[in-house]
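Now read this:
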Amino acid sequence: MIGLANIKYTGNVHSYAEDLFVQLFCDAFGPEKSRYLFIQYPFRDIYGNSRYTDFALLSEEMKVAIEIDGERYHNPKLVSSNKYHDDLLKQNSLIYDNWKVYRWTYSQLKSQPEKVKDEMITFLGEMPIFKYFEDYLPKQRGKVIKLKEHQQEALKNLRQMREKGESIALLYHATGTGKTVTAVSDAKRVGERTLFLAHTKELVYQAKETFEKVWKDADVGLYVAEDREEDAYVVCGSIQGVAQNIEMFKPDDFGYLIIDECHHSAANTYKKILSYFKPKFTLGLTATPERMDGEDILELFQNVAHKLDLQTAVEIGELVPIRCIRIKTNVDLSDVRINGIKYNTQDLESKLFIPERNKIIVDTYLDFVKDKKTVVFCASVKHAEMIAELFKEKGVRAEAVSGSLRDSVRKRILDEYENGDINVLCACDLLNEGWDSPQTRVLFMARPTMSKTLYLQQLGKGMRLCEGKEYLMVFDFIDNASLFNMPYSLHRIFNIREYRPGEYVVASEKQKQMDRDLLAKGEKPSVYLDFPIDVQDYEIVDLFDWQEEVKDMVSQIEFVRMVDVQ
Protein backbone atom coordinates (compact mmCIF):
# COMPACT_ATOMS: atom_id res chain seq x y z
CA MET A 1 0.00 0.00 0.00
CA ILE A 2 1.29 3.47 -0.86
CA GLY A 3 1.72 5.74 2.16
CA LEU A 4 0.17 9.19 1.84
CA ALA A 5 3.48 10.83 2.64
CA ASN A 6 5.07 9.15 -0.38
CA ILE A 7 2.55 10.26 -2.98
CA LYS A 8 4.11 11.42 -6.19
CA TYR A 9 2.12 14.10 -7.99
CA THR A 10 1.69 13.90 -11.74
CA GLY A 11 0.07 16.80 -13.55
CA ASN A 12 -3.24 17.55 -11.86
CA VAL A 13 -3.87 17.06 -8.16
CA HIS A 14 -3.50 13.39 -7.29
CA SER A 15 -6.61 11.40 -6.47
CA TYR A 16 -5.42 10.86 -2.89
CA ALA A 17 -5.47 14.61 -2.37
CA GLU A 18 -8.95 14.69 -3.94
CA ASP A 19 -10.08 12.08 -1.39
CA LEU A 20 -8.75 14.17 1.47
CA PHE A 21 -10.31 17.40 0.22
CA VAL A 22 -13.72 15.78 -0.28
CA GLN A 23 -13.51 14.32 3.24
CA LEU A 24 -12.82 17.78 4.73
CA PHE A 25 -15.59 19.30 2.59
CA CYS A 26 -18.04 16.68 3.91
CA ASP A 27 -16.91 17.37 7.47
CA ALA A 28 -17.47 21.09 6.98
CA PHE A 29 -20.81 21.08 5.14
CA GLY A 30 -22.22 17.55 5.40
CA PRO A 31 -21.90 14.69 2.88
CA GLU A 32 -25.16 15.64 1.14
CA LYS A 33 -23.56 18.89 -0.12
CA SER A 34 -20.73 17.02 -1.83
CA ARG A 35 -23.03 16.00 -4.71
CA TYR A 36 -22.57 19.54 -6.05
CA LEU A 37 -18.78 19.22 -6.19
CA PHE A 38 -17.46 18.87 -9.71
CA ILE A 39 -14.06 17.17 -9.83
CA GLN A 40 -11.64 18.24 -12.59
CA TYR A 41 -13.94 20.90 -14.02
CA PRO A 42 -12.93 21.94 -17.58
CA PHE A 43 -12.60 25.54 -18.76
CA ARG A 44 -10.61 27.52 -21.32
CA ASP A 45 -7.97 30.12 -20.53
CA ILE A 46 -7.87 33.51 -22.27
CA TYR A 47 -5.88 31.98 -25.16
CA GLY A 48 -8.47 29.26 -25.77
CA ASN A 49 -6.43 26.41 -24.28
CA SER A 50 -8.23 23.59 -22.43
CA ARG A 51 -7.67 23.66 -18.67
CA TYR A 52 -9.01 21.91 -15.58
CA THR A 53 -9.59 23.17 -12.08
CA ASP A 54 -9.39 20.56 -9.33
CA PHE A 55 -12.87 21.26 -7.96
CA ALA A 56 -15.73 23.56 -8.93
CA LEU A 57 -18.89 24.70 -7.16
CA LEU A 58 -21.82 26.69 -8.52
CA SER A 59 -24.37 28.82 -6.64
CA GLU A 60 -26.88 31.47 -7.66
CA GLU A 61 -24.36 34.19 -6.94
CA MET A 62 -20.95 32.80 -7.86
CA LYS A 63 -18.72 30.21 -9.49
CA VAL A 64 -16.03 28.82 -7.18
CA ALA A 65 -12.83 27.13 -8.36
CA ILE A 66 -10.74 25.23 -5.81
CA GLU A 67 -7.14 24.24 -6.42
CA ILE A 68 -5.18 21.77 -4.29
CA ASP A 69 -1.50 22.49 -4.87
CA GLY A 70 1.30 19.99 -4.53
CA GLU A 71 4.48 21.66 -3.30
CA ARG A 72 6.60 20.06 -5.97
CA TYR A 73 4.45 21.28 -8.87
CA HIS A 74 3.32 24.72 -7.69
CA ASN A 75 6.02 26.12 -5.41
CA PRO A 76 7.89 28.81 -7.41
CA LYS A 77 11.15 27.73 -5.77
CA LEU A 78 10.75 24.13 -6.95
CA VAL A 79 9.37 24.48 -10.48
CA SER A 80 10.57 26.15 -13.64
CA SER A 81 9.59 29.76 -14.28
CA ASN A 82 7.52 28.61 -17.29
CA LYS A 83 5.47 26.22 -15.13
CA TYR A 84 4.99 28.87 -12.46
CA HIS A 85 3.91 31.49 -15.01
CA ASP A 86 1.55 28.97 -16.60
CA ASP A 87 -0.01 28.41 -13.18
CA LEU A 88 -0.54 32.16 -12.80
CA LEU A 89 -2.17 32.32 -16.24
CA LYS A 90 -4.56 29.56 -15.24
CA GLN A 91 -5.60 31.41 -12.08
CA ASN A 92 -5.84 34.79 -13.82
CA SER A 93 -8.02 33.30 -16.56
CA LEU A 94 -10.43 31.93 -13.96
CA ILE A 95 -10.65 35.30 -12.22
CA TYR A 96 -11.11 37.06 -15.59
CA ASP A 97 -14.10 34.76 -16.22
CA ASN A 98 -15.67 35.81 -12.88
CA TRP A 99 -14.63 32.76 -10.84
CA LYS A 100 -13.72 33.01 -7.19
CA VAL A 101 -10.50 31.03 -6.73
CA TYR A 102 -9.44 29.40 -3.45
CA ARG A 103 -6.22 27.43 -3.04
CA TRP A 104 -4.82 25.10 -0.42
CA THR A 105 -1.72 22.93 -0.46
CA TYR A 106 -1.90 19.20 0.03
CA SER A 107 0.32 19.53 3.10
CA GLN A 108 -2.25 21.93 4.64
CA LEU A 109 -5.02 19.37 4.15
CA LYS A 110 -2.91 16.77 5.97
CA SER A 111 -1.42 18.81 8.79
CA GLN A 112 -4.07 21.53 9.41
CA PRO A 113 -7.45 19.96 8.56
CA GLU A 114 -9.44 21.96 11.16
CA LYS A 115 -8.00 25.24 9.94
CA VAL A 116 -8.81 24.35 6.33
CA LYS A 117 -12.41 23.49 7.29
CA ASP A 118 -12.77 26.80 9.12
CA GLU A 119 -11.48 28.63 6.06
CA MET A 120 -13.91 26.75 3.78
CA ILE A 121 -16.83 27.86 5.96
CA THR A 122 -15.54 31.44 5.99
CA PHE A 123 -15.15 31.58 2.21
CA LEU A 124 -18.30 29.65 1.19
CA GLY A 125 -20.65 30.48 4.07
CA GLU A 126 -21.92 28.41 6.99
CA MET A 127 -24.95 27.06 5.10
CA PRO A 128 -24.20 27.51 1.40
CA ILE A 129 -26.76 26.69 -1.30
CA PHE A 130 -25.18 25.11 -4.35
CA LYS A 131 -26.51 24.09 -7.76
CA TYR A 132 -25.67 21.35 -10.24
CA PHE A 133 -23.51 22.19 -13.22
CA GLU A 134 -25.52 21.59 -16.40
CA ASP A 135 -22.89 22.16 -19.08
CA TYR A 136 -23.78 18.85 -20.70
CA LEU A 137 -27.24 20.10 -21.68
CA PRO A 138 -27.91 21.75 -25.06
CA LYS A 139 -29.07 25.33 -25.40
CA GLN A 140 -32.61 26.25 -26.31
CA ARG A 141 -33.32 26.23 -30.02
CA GLY A 142 -34.15 29.71 -31.24
CA LYS A 143 -33.99 32.39 -33.88
CA VAL A 144 -34.17 36.13 -34.43
CA ILE A 145 -37.42 37.55 -35.79
CA LYS A 146 -37.22 41.08 -37.14
CA LEU A 147 -40.56 42.83 -36.73
CA LYS A 148 -42.10 43.34 -40.15
CA GLU A 149 -44.47 46.09 -41.24
CA HIS A 150 -47.31 43.69 -40.52
CA GLN A 151 -47.16 42.06 -37.08
CA GLN A 152 -48.96 38.98 -38.39
CA GLU A 153 -45.71 38.01 -40.11
CA ALA A 154 -43.91 37.89 -36.77
CA LEU A 155 -46.75 35.91 -35.17
CA LYS A 156 -46.64 33.43 -38.04
CA ASN A 157 -42.87 32.99 -37.58
CA LEU A 158 -43.27 32.39 -33.86
CA ARG A 159 -45.92 29.75 -34.45
CA GLN A 160 -43.73 27.99 -37.00
CA MET A 161 -40.81 28.03 -34.58
CA ARG A 162 -42.81 26.22 -31.94
CA GLU A 163 -44.01 23.65 -34.48
CA LYS A 164 -40.33 22.86 -35.15
CA GLY A 165 -39.59 22.44 -31.45
CA GLU A 166 -37.76 25.75 -31.04
CA SER A 167 -38.30 27.30 -27.63
CA ILE A 168 -36.57 30.68 -27.48
CA ALA A 169 -36.86 33.71 -29.76
CA LEU A 170 -35.73 37.29 -30.03
CA LEU A 171 -38.08 39.94 -31.44
CA TYR A 172 -36.34 43.16 -32.32
CA HIS A 173 -36.86 46.47 -34.06
CA ALA A 174 -36.84 50.13 -33.19
CA THR A 175 -38.76 51.47 -30.19
CA GLY A 176 -42.43 52.13 -30.85
CA THR A 177 -42.92 49.56 -33.61
CA GLY A 178 -45.24 47.27 -31.67
CA LYS A 179 -42.99 44.60 -30.13
CA THR A 180 -45.00 44.46 -26.90
CA VAL A 181 -48.34 44.13 -28.73
CA THR A 182 -46.88 41.30 -30.85
CA ALA A 183 -45.53 39.54 -27.73
CA VAL A 184 -48.84 39.84 -25.87
CA SER A 185 -50.76 38.62 -28.93
CA ASP A 186 -48.51 35.58 -29.20
CA ALA A 187 -48.81 34.83 -25.47
CA LYS A 188 -52.61 35.02 -25.79
CA ARG A 189 -52.57 32.60 -28.72
CA VAL A 190 -50.39 30.11 -26.81
CA GLY A 191 -52.68 30.46 -23.78
CA GLU A 192 -50.14 29.44 -21.14
CA ARG A 193 -49.69 31.26 -17.85
CA THR A 194 -47.41 34.20 -18.66
CA LEU A 195 -44.70 36.21 -16.90
CA PHE A 196 -43.70 39.57 -18.42
CA LEU A 197 -40.57 41.21 -17.00
CA ALA A 198 -39.10 44.66 -17.56
CA HIS A 199 -36.45 46.73 -15.79
CA THR A 200 -38.51 49.89 -15.11
CA LYS A 201 -41.90 50.44 -13.48
CA GLU A 202 -43.10 52.43 -16.48
CA LEU A 203 -42.53 49.50 -18.84
CA VAL A 204 -44.23 47.11 -16.41
CA TYR A 205 -47.34 49.32 -16.15
CA GLN A 206 -47.46 49.79 -19.93
CA ALA A 207 -47.26 46.02 -20.41
CA LYS A 208 -50.15 45.49 -17.96
CA GLU A 209 -52.30 47.92 -19.95
CA THR A 210 -51.41 46.13 -23.20
CA PHE A 211 -52.31 42.73 -21.76
CA GLU A 212 -55.65 44.07 -20.51
CA LYS A 213 -56.47 45.46 -23.97
CA VAL A 214 -55.28 42.50 -26.06
CA TRP A 215 -56.01 39.54 -23.73
CA LYS A 216 -59.20 40.68 -22.06
CA ASP A 217 -60.12 37.31 -20.54
CA ALA A 218 -56.85 36.96 -18.63
CA ASP A 219 -56.40 37.88 -14.97
CA VAL A 220 -53.51 40.38 -15.15
CA GLY A 221 -51.56 41.32 -12.01
CA LEU A 222 -48.52 43.40 -11.08
CA TYR A 223 -45.37 42.31 -9.29
CA VAL A 224 -43.53 45.48 -8.32
CA ALA A 225 -42.47 46.92 -4.98
CA GLU A 226 -45.91 47.98 -3.76
CA ASP A 227 -48.06 45.45 -5.64
CA ARG A 228 -47.41 41.70 -5.49
CA GLU A 229 -50.07 39.68 -7.28
CA GLU A 230 -48.03 36.54 -7.85
CA ASP A 231 -51.13 34.35 -8.25
CA ALA A 232 -52.47 36.19 -11.33
CA TYR A 233 -52.59 34.24 -14.61
CA VAL A 234 -50.53 36.97 -16.26
CA VAL A 235 -47.90 38.57 -14.02
CA CYS A 236 -46.23 41.80 -15.13
CA GLY A 237 -43.25 42.37 -12.90
CA SER A 238 -39.95 44.15 -12.49
CA ILE A 239 -36.75 42.20 -13.05
CA GLN A 240 -35.41 43.30 -9.68
CA GLY A 241 -38.60 42.50 -7.76
CA VAL A 242 -38.95 38.98 -9.12
CA ALA A 243 -35.24 38.23 -8.78
CA GLN A 244 -35.24 39.27 -5.13
CA ASN A 245 -38.30 37.13 -4.36
CA ILE A 246 -37.76 34.27 -6.78
CA GLU A 247 -38.43 31.68 -4.08
CA MET A 248 -42.09 32.79 -4.16
CA PHE A 249 -42.40 31.09 -7.56
CA LYS A 250 -41.82 27.55 -8.79
CA PRO A 251 -39.59 27.03 -11.85
CA ASP A 252 -42.54 25.68 -13.86
CA ASP A 253 -45.11 28.28 -12.73
CA PHE A 254 -45.15 29.93 -16.16
CA GLY A 255 -45.46 28.41 -19.60
CA TYR A 256 -44.56 31.62 -21.43
CA LEU A 257 -41.84 34.10 -20.39
CA ILE A 258 -41.33 37.54 -21.96
CA ILE A 259 -38.19 39.54 -21.18
CA ASP A 260 -38.25 43.18 -22.28
CA GLU A 261 -34.95 44.91 -23.09
CA CYS A 262 -33.29 41.50 -23.11
CA HIS A 263 -29.93 42.84 -24.33
CA HIS A 264 -29.26 43.32 -20.59
CA SER A 265 -29.44 39.53 -20.17
CA ALA A 266 -25.77 39.18 -19.20
CA ALA A 267 -26.52 41.03 -15.94
CA ASN A 268 -26.73 38.84 -12.84
CA THR A 269 -30.43 39.51 -12.13
CA TYR A 270 -31.37 38.48 -15.68
CA LYS A 271 -29.17 35.39 -15.46
CA LYS A 272 -30.80 34.41 -12.19
CA ILE A 273 -34.31 34.61 -13.65
CA LEU A 274 -33.57 33.04 -17.03
CA SER A 275 -31.74 30.09 -15.50
CA TYR A 276 -34.43 29.57 -12.81
CA PHE A 277 -37.69 29.55 -14.74
CA LYS A 278 -38.39 26.69 -17.15
CA PRO A 279 -41.19 27.90 -19.45
CA LYS A 280 -42.25 26.14 -22.63
CA PHE A 281 -41.40 29.26 -24.62
CA THR A 282 -39.23 32.32 -23.94
CA LEU A 283 -39.45 35.56 -25.95
CA GLY A 284 -36.94 38.39 -25.68
CA LEU A 285 -37.78 41.93 -26.84
CA THR A 286 -35.19 44.52 -27.73
CA ALA A 287 -34.52 47.63 -29.77
CA THR A 288 -31.12 46.45 -31.02
CA PRO A 289 -28.22 48.60 -29.81
CA GLU A 290 -25.99 49.83 -32.62
CA ARG A 291 -22.99 47.91 -31.32
CA MET A 292 -24.75 44.52 -31.53
CA ASP A 293 -26.88 42.79 -34.11
CA GLY A 294 -29.78 40.49 -33.34
CA GLU A 295 -27.72 37.31 -33.72
CA ASP A 296 -25.24 38.50 -31.08
CA ILE A 297 -28.04 39.18 -28.61
CA LEU A 298 -29.71 35.85 -29.33
CA GLU A 299 -26.45 34.03 -28.55
CA LEU A 300 -26.14 35.97 -25.30
CA PHE A 301 -29.80 35.29 -24.51
CA GLN A 302 -29.46 31.55 -25.15
CA ASN A 303 -26.33 31.30 -23.04
CA VAL A 304 -28.06 32.56 -19.90
CA ALA A 305 -31.47 30.95 -20.45
CA HIS A 306 -32.20 27.62 -18.78
CA LYS A 307 -30.88 24.63 -20.69
CA LEU A 308 -33.03 22.02 -22.40
CA ASP A 309 -33.41 18.89 -20.31
CA LEU A 310 -32.23 15.68 -21.98
CA GLN A 311 -35.73 14.28 -22.46
CA THR A 312 -36.93 17.45 -24.23
CA ALA A 313 -33.76 17.65 -26.33
CA VAL A 314 -34.31 14.08 -27.56
CA GLU A 315 -38.02 14.65 -28.26
CA ILE A 316 -37.36 17.66 -30.49
CA GLY A 317 -34.50 15.93 -32.30
CA GLU A 318 -31.66 17.96 -30.80
CA LEU A 319 -29.98 14.83 -29.38
CA VAL A 320 -30.19 11.13 -30.28
CA PRO A 321 -32.20 8.74 -28.07
CA ILE A 322 -30.46 6.26 -25.76
CA ARG A 323 -30.69 2.50 -25.50
CA CYS A 324 -29.00 0.51 -22.75
CA ILE A 325 -27.51 -2.90 -22.01
CA ARG A 326 -26.47 -3.67 -18.42
CA ILE A 327 -23.37 -5.85 -17.99
CA LYS A 328 -23.15 -7.56 -14.61
CA THR A 329 -19.72 -8.13 -13.04
CA ASN A 330 -18.73 -10.16 -9.99
CA VAL A 331 -16.85 -7.21 -8.46
CA ASP A 332 -18.07 -6.30 -4.98
CA LEU A 333 -17.93 -2.60 -4.02
CA SER A 334 -19.91 -3.05 -0.78
CA ASP A 335 -16.98 -2.29 1.52
CA VAL A 336 -15.47 0.52 -0.60
CA ARG A 337 -15.45 3.63 1.55
CA ILE A 338 -17.07 6.84 0.27
CA ASN A 339 -16.74 10.54 0.97
CA GLY A 340 -20.10 11.89 -0.14
CA ILE A 341 -19.85 11.41 -3.92
CA LYS A 342 -16.32 10.06 -4.14
CA TYR A 343 -15.12 6.52 -3.64
CA ASN A 344 -11.92 6.14 -1.67
CA THR A 345 -9.27 5.88 -4.38
CA GLN A 346 -7.22 3.11 -2.79
CA ASP A 347 -10.30 1.01 -2.02
CA LEU A 348 -11.70 1.43 -5.52
CA GLU A 349 -8.45 0.64 -7.30
CA SER A 350 -8.01 -2.54 -5.26
CA LYS A 351 -11.44 -3.71 -6.43
CA LEU A 352 -11.36 -2.65 -10.08
CA PHE A 353 -7.79 -3.36 -11.14
CA ILE A 354 -8.39 -7.06 -11.59
CA PRO A 355 -7.98 -9.00 -14.85
CA GLU A 356 -11.48 -10.49 -14.79
CA ARG A 357 -13.32 -7.14 -14.85
CA ASN A 358 -11.00 -5.67 -17.48
CA LYS A 359 -11.51 -8.78 -19.63
CA ILE A 360 -15.30 -8.32 -19.42
CA ILE A 361 -14.92 -4.79 -20.84
CA VAL A 362 -12.87 -5.93 -23.83
CA ASP A 363 -14.97 -9.05 -24.46
CA THR A 364 -18.17 -6.97 -24.40
CA TYR A 365 -16.78 -4.74 -27.14
CA LEU A 366 -15.69 -7.69 -29.28
CA ASP A 367 -19.00 -9.55 -28.80
CA PHE A 368 -21.41 -6.62 -29.20
CA VAL A 369 -19.97 -3.57 -30.94
CA LYS A 370 -16.74 -4.43 -32.74
CA ASP A 371 -15.66 -1.70 -35.19
CA LYS A 372 -18.17 0.82 -33.79
CA LYS A 373 -16.79 4.13 -32.48
CA THR A 374 -16.72 3.63 -28.70
CA VAL A 375 -15.65 5.65 -25.67
CA VAL A 376 -14.75 3.68 -22.52
CA PHE A 377 -14.90 5.73 -19.32
CA CYS A 378 -12.41 4.24 -16.86
CA ALA A 379 -11.78 4.61 -13.14
CA SER A 380 -8.43 6.39 -13.47
CA VAL A 381 -5.74 7.34 -15.96
CA LYS A 382 -3.84 4.17 -15.07
CA HIS A 383 -6.99 2.12 -15.62
CA ALA A 384 -7.59 3.77 -19.02
CA GLU A 385 -4.04 2.95 -20.14
CA MET A 386 -4.45 -0.64 -18.96
CA ILE A 387 -7.74 -1.13 -20.86
CA ALA A 388 -6.30 0.45 -24.04
CA GLU A 389 -3.41 -2.03 -23.98
CA LEU A 390 -5.84 -4.96 -23.65
CA PHE A 391 -7.76 -3.70 -26.69
CA LYS A 392 -4.52 -3.45 -28.70
CA GLU A 393 -3.61 -7.02 -27.77
CA LYS A 394 -6.90 -8.08 -29.41
CA GLY A 395 -6.11 -6.13 -32.58
CA VAL A 396 -8.41 -3.19 -31.85
CA ARG A 397 -7.17 0.33 -32.66
CA ALA A 398 -7.50 1.94 -29.21
CA GLU A 399 -5.82 4.81 -27.39
CA ALA A 400 -5.88 6.18 -23.85
CA VAL A 401 -6.21 9.95 -23.51
CA SER A 402 -5.38 11.97 -20.41
CA GLY A 403 -4.12 15.34 -19.27
CA SER A 404 -0.58 13.98 -19.14
CA LEU A 405 -0.43 13.90 -22.96
CA ARG A 406 0.94 16.87 -24.88
CA ASP A 407 -1.79 18.94 -26.52
CA SER A 408 -0.56 18.04 -30.00
CA VAL A 409 -0.62 14.30 -29.23
CA ARG A 410 -4.05 14.49 -27.65
CA LYS A 411 -5.50 16.46 -30.60
CA ARG A 412 -4.04 13.95 -33.05
CA ILE A 413 -5.61 11.01 -31.19
CA LEU A 414 -9.02 12.70 -30.97
CA ASP A 415 -8.90 13.60 -34.66
CA GLU A 416 -7.96 10.02 -35.66
CA TYR A 417 -10.82 8.73 -33.53
CA GLU A 418 -13.36 11.09 -35.09
CA ASN A 419 -12.13 10.91 -38.68
CA GLY A 420 -9.70 8.00 -38.89
CA ASP A 421 -8.93 4.42 -37.87
CA ILE A 422 -9.00 4.65 -34.06
CA ASN A 423 -12.21 2.95 -32.90
CA VAL A 424 -11.89 3.03 -29.10
CA LEU A 425 -10.97 5.87 -26.74
CA CYS A 426 -10.24 5.05 -23.09
CA ALA A 427 -10.44 8.01 -20.72
CA CYS A 428 -11.05 9.02 -17.13
CA ASP A 429 -12.03 12.71 -16.75
CA LEU A 430 -10.46 14.31 -19.79
CA LEU A 431 -13.44 13.82 -22.11
CA ASN A 432 -16.17 14.74 -19.63
CA GLU A 433 -16.51 18.23 -21.04
CA GLY A 434 -15.01 20.42 -23.72
CA TRP A 435 -15.11 17.66 -26.36
CA ASP A 436 -18.00 16.19 -28.31
CA SER A 437 -17.98 13.36 -30.80
CA PRO A 438 -20.94 12.99 -33.18
CA GLN A 439 -19.32 9.80 -34.54
CA THR A 440 -19.54 8.03 -31.16
CA ARG A 441 -22.12 5.24 -31.32
CA VAL A 442 -21.35 3.51 -28.02
CA LEU A 443 -20.40 4.46 -24.46
CA PHE A 444 -18.98 2.02 -21.90
CA MET A 445 -19.73 3.28 -18.38
CA ALA A 446 -16.97 1.25 -16.73
CA ARG A 447 -16.18 3.84 -14.06
CA PRO A 448 -18.29 3.56 -10.90
CA THR A 449 -19.34 7.03 -9.77
CA MET A 450 -21.74 8.50 -7.21
CA SER A 451 -21.68 11.88 -8.94
CA LYS A 452 -24.83 12.48 -10.99
CA THR A 453 -23.14 15.42 -12.72
CA LEU A 454 -20.15 13.31 -13.77
CA TYR A 455 -22.34 10.53 -15.15
CA LEU A 456 -24.47 12.96 -17.17
CA GLN A 457 -21.38 14.78 -18.46
CA GLN A 458 -20.03 11.48 -19.75
CA LEU A 459 -23.41 10.56 -21.24
CA GLY A 460 -23.48 13.80 -23.22
CA LYS A 461 -20.34 12.78 -25.12
CA GLY A 462 -22.27 10.33 -27.27
CA MET A 463 -25.64 12.03 -27.77
CA ARG A 464 -24.68 14.43 -30.58
CA LEU A 465 -26.47 14.02 -33.89
CA CYS A 466 -24.72 12.36 -36.82
CA GLU A 467 -25.94 11.13 -40.19
CA GLY A 468 -27.02 7.50 -39.96
CA LYS A 469 -26.89 7.47 -36.16
CA GLU A 470 -30.29 6.32 -34.88
CA TYR A 471 -29.43 6.06 -31.20
CA LEU A 472 -26.62 5.91 -28.64
CA MET A 473 -26.01 2.52 -27.06
CA VAL A 474 -24.85 2.68 -23.43
CA PHE A 475 -23.27 -0.33 -21.76
CA ASP A 476 -23.61 0.06 -17.99
CA PHE A 477 -21.12 -2.07 -16.06
CA ILE A 478 -22.99 -3.03 -12.90
CA ASP A 479 -20.87 -3.99 -9.91
CA ASN A 480 -22.28 -5.31 -6.64
CA ALA A 481 -22.67 -2.56 -4.05
CA SER A 482 -24.52 -1.71 -0.86
CA LEU A 483 -27.51 0.62 -0.70
CA PHE A 484 -25.40 3.57 0.43
CA ASN A 485 -22.44 3.29 -1.93
CA MET A 486 -24.29 2.19 -5.05
CA PRO A 487 -22.92 3.91 -8.18
CA TYR A 488 -25.16 5.63 -10.69
CA SER A 489 -26.41 3.79 -13.75
CA LEU A 490 -28.57 4.98 -16.63
CA HIS A 491 -31.76 3.56 -15.11
CA ARG A 492 -31.03 5.05 -11.68
CA ILE A 493 -30.28 8.46 -13.21
CA PHE A 494 -33.64 8.53 -15.00
CA ASN A 495 -35.56 6.71 -12.27
CA ILE A 496 -36.63 3.82 -14.54
CA ARG A 497 -37.30 0.64 -12.58
CA GLU A 498 -37.93 -1.83 -15.42
CA TYR A 499 -34.97 -2.94 -17.54
CA ARG A 500 -35.08 -4.92 -20.77
CA PRO A 501 -31.84 -5.26 -22.75
CA GLY A 502 -31.58 -2.81 -25.62
CA GLU A 503 -34.80 -1.00 -24.75
CA TYR A 504 -34.99 2.78 -25.02
CA VAL A 505 -34.21 4.59 -21.76
CA VAL A 506 -34.36 8.15 -23.11
CA ALA A 507 -36.53 8.60 -26.22
CA SER A 508 -39.72 10.20 -27.42
CA GLU A 509 -42.97 8.39 -26.70
CA LYS A 510 -43.36 7.84 -30.45
CA GLN A 511 -40.00 6.04 -30.65
CA LYS A 512 -40.84 3.84 -27.66
CA GLN A 513 -44.27 3.02 -29.09
CA MET A 514 -42.73 1.90 -32.40
CA ASP A 515 -40.69 -0.69 -30.50
CA ARG A 516 -43.76 -1.86 -28.58
CA ASP A 517 -45.80 -2.15 -31.77
CA LEU A 518 -43.17 -4.34 -33.44
CA LEU A 519 -42.92 -6.63 -30.43
CA ALA A 520 -46.72 -6.90 -30.29
CA LYS A 521 -46.65 -8.15 -33.88
CA GLY A 522 -44.04 -10.75 -32.99
CA GLU A 523 -41.33 -8.81 -34.82
CA LYS A 524 -38.06 -7.60 -33.33
CA PRO A 525 -36.86 -3.96 -33.44
CA SER A 526 -33.56 -3.56 -35.28
CA VAL A 527 -31.64 -3.28 -32.01
CA TYR A 528 -32.39 -6.92 -31.23
CA LEU A 529 -30.99 -7.91 -34.60
CA ASP A 530 -27.86 -5.77 -34.17
CA PHE A 531 -26.98 -7.13 -30.71
CA PRO A 532 -27.00 -10.68 -29.38
CA ILE A 533 -29.60 -10.02 -26.68
CA ASP A 534 -32.81 -11.75 -25.68
CA VAL A 535 -35.99 -9.68 -25.82
CA GLN A 536 -37.44 -11.82 -23.00
CA ASP A 537 -34.77 -10.79 -20.47
CA TYR A 538 -36.19 -8.57 -17.72
CA GLU A 539 -34.93 -7.06 -14.49
CA ILE A 540 -36.24 -4.82 -11.72
CA VAL A 541 -33.67 -2.11 -10.94
CA ASP A 542 -33.10 -1.00 -7.35
CA LEU A 543 -33.59 2.78 -7.52
CA PHE A 544 -32.79 3.63 -3.90
CA ASP A 545 -30.68 6.80 -3.83
CA TRP A 546 -29.66 8.14 -0.45
CA GLN A 547 -28.63 11.50 -1.92
CA GLU A 548 -32.13 11.94 -3.30
CA GLU A 549 -33.67 10.81 -0.01
CA VAL A 550 -31.82 13.43 2.05
CA LYS A 551 -31.94 16.36 -0.40
CA ASP A 552 -34.78 18.11 1.48
CA MET A 553 -33.52 17.29 4.95
CA VAL A 554 -31.43 19.47 7.23
CA SER A 555 -28.13 17.83 8.10
CA GLN A 556 -26.92 17.60 11.68
CA ILE A 557 -24.18 20.10 10.87
CA GLU A 558 -26.66 22.61 9.41
CA PHE A 559 -29.05 22.11 12.34
CA VAL A 560 -26.31 22.88 14.88
CA ARG A 561 -25.38 26.04 12.95
CA MET A 562 -29.02 27.16 12.72
CA VAL A 563 -29.44 26.75 16.48
CA ASP A 564 -26.13 28.55 16.99
CA VAL A 565 -27.29 31.52 14.92
CA GLN A 566 -30.63 31.70 16.75
User: Anything to note?
Assistant: Residues 322-550 form a domain with the Rossmann fold fold (CATH 3.40.50.300). The first helix runs from residue 15 to 29. The longest strand covers residues 322-332.
